[in-house]
Write a structure and sequence with these properties.
Layout: H1 5-19, E1 35-40, E2 47-51, E3 57-62, H2 64-68, H3 74-91, E4 104-109, E5 115-122, E6 127-128, H4 138-151
Parallel strand pairs: 1-4
Antiparallel strand pairs: 1-2, 2-3, 4-5, 5-6
């Protein structure tokens, strides 16, 4: 599912609105939090809700395409779309001027506020996209290491 430019712009504006709660300024007033993005698909009108660590709603916007397409691939498409919007915003420098203490991350959460995916980790001069390739095979390596340790 491809989002229209209008929907992508609404998502970007919602993220900007959420970040406006943390304006850049005095380094002594840095805030420690992550930004959580929660798609709500079960309502008549699907929306994206953006919250902080304390579940305070920072912004929300409707996304028409999510209402029209509610299938199994929707969640994967939503994750990919949000990751792309955030990457574009980071490349434009839109995520740099906040009082959020780095590193902070943008996470995709479900209805139970459980993390589904880490969409973007913002660090000083580093951009890490968590697309699964970075940690691919880590479980097997850790299991093999633990097995070897226990056998000695």
């Amino acid at each position: 599912m491809k989002l229209s430019p209008q929907s992508q712009n609404r998502i970007e504006e919602a993220i900007k609105t959420a970040l406006a709660h943390y304006p850049a300024g005095n380094d002594l007033q840095q805030v420690i939090t992550d930004i959580h993005l929660q798609p709500r698909l079960e309502a008549e009108e699907s929306e994206l809700v953006i919250m902080d660590d304390d579940d305070h709603v920072l912004a929300q916007t409707s996304v028409d395409e999510w209402t029209e397409n509610r299938d199994d691939e929707t969640c994967e498409d939503i994750e990919s779309t949000l990751r792309n919007v955030l990457k574009r915003m980071k490349e434009k420098g839109m995520l740099d001027n906040t009082s959020l203490m780095k590193p902070y991350s943008f996470t995709l959460i479900d209805d139970h506020k459980e993390t589904v995916a880490e969409l973007l980790l913002v660090d000083d001069d580093t951009l890490l996209l968590n697309d699964g390739e970075l940690l691919k095979g880590l479980d097997k390596e850790l299991d093999a290491f633990l097995k070897e340790l226990l056998e000695k």
